[in-house]
Design brief:
The protein is α/β, with parallel strands linked by helices and about 300 residues long. It is built from twelve helices and twelve strands. GO terms for molecular function: glyoxylate reductase (NADPH) activity; hydroxypyruvate reductase [NAD(P)H] activity; NAD binding.
């Protein structure tokens, strides 16, 4: 392949643009435009859906969609495969995302953001009055015991938490390493867990895995943590569960209608809201940049990316 043209779906930090430039010309494109200029490789992020009409109007010369991030639910993988387009991701975010999930769990249970908010507003009494929920010794229910779920469980061990989980199938290795217990059903996990963390993929089977019925099955006062994908949760149902007082709190790094946040969520002191920063450390973002370059180099040199998803 001669030097390819790389079509980038949003502005990126200059060091990453410079790194991509080693492979060929880099152009920023608008996927919502009527036409997309000629190019060979799409470099994209989870914020840029590539499905349906967008996928259909990609130049015929495109043969790789290189995603910066681990999740690829924003790309129609089967349709891309039928068009002869490979899709890659950057599976180097496990530890940083698990750090963030644990921080979100702690911040939500102890109402740290609310206390800080009041303190910044010069309201010491209200800040001091934020009574949270104990974390150590509680039961953590993990939905999705993949790499990030296991990394979160390792962190929770340090707080003496009991780990239970659901997964497509039992993970004996994780059970042996983490002392985790497999729940045959989601309903069993929701009934037992004091804190529920969503760490599963987003797909048609997991969309709204936490809906009104699931929320009603959680223990009164339980806490929900989502550092996975926003549409795993029905946010309208979540707001109702918070308004009723059934839930003890929620910590969210991702949103159903991202980047929009359902307005009702901002009204609660027992809700911690972050702006999809699971991988947002300098080190992790550098790792992601290197990995997307590895995938592009492998595609150019060998015809297939290292981390092919389809």
């Amino acid at each position: 392949m001669s030097k390819p043209t790389l079509l980038v779906t949003r502005p990126l930090p200059q060091p990453m643009v410079d790194a991509l430039g080693q492979f060929g010309e880099v152009q920023i494109v608008d996927l919502t435009a009527d036409t997309i200029p000629a190019g060979d490789i799409i470099v994209t992020t989870p914020l840029d859906p590539i499905k349906g009409e967008v996928l259909a109007k990609l130049p015929k010369s495109v043969r790789l969609i290189a995603n910066i991030g681990i999740g690829v639910d924003h790309v129609d993988l089967s349709a891309a495969r039928e068009l002869g387009i490979a899709v890659s991701n950057t599976p180097v975010v496990t530890e940083d995302t698990a750090d963030l999930a644990m921080a979100l769990l702690l911040a939500t249970c102890r109402k740290l953001s609310a206390s800080e908010r009041y303190l910044r507003a010069d309201d010491w009494v209200s800040g001091m009055g934020q009574t949270g929920i104990r974390v150590h010794g509680k039961t953590l229910g993990i939905i999705g015991m993949g790499a990030i779920g296991q990394a979160l469980a390792r962190r929770a061990q340090g707080f003496g938490m009991e780990i239970i989980y659901t997964n497509r199938s039992p993970n004996p290795d994780a059970e042996a390493a983490l002392g985790a217990r497999f729940c045959e059903t989601k309903e069993q996990l929701l009934a037992e867990a004091d804190i529920v963390s969503l760490n599963c993929d987003l797909n048609p089977n997991t969309r709204h895995i936490i809906d009104a019925e699931a929320l009603s099955q959680m223990k009164p006062g339980a806490v929900l943590i989502n550092a996975g994908r926003g549409p795993l949760v029905d946010e309208a149902a979540l707001i109702k569960a918070l308004e009723s007082g059934h839930l003890g709190g929620a910590g969210l790094d991702v949103y159903e209608f991202e980047p929009q946040v359902s307005p009702g969520l901002t009204a609660f002191d027992n809700v911690t809201l972050l702006a999809h920063i699971g991988s947002a450390t300098q080190e992790c973002r550098a790792d992601m940049a290197r990995r997307v370059c590895v995938n592009i180099a492998a595609f150019i040199q060998q015809g297939a990316p290292q981390d092919c998803c389809n």
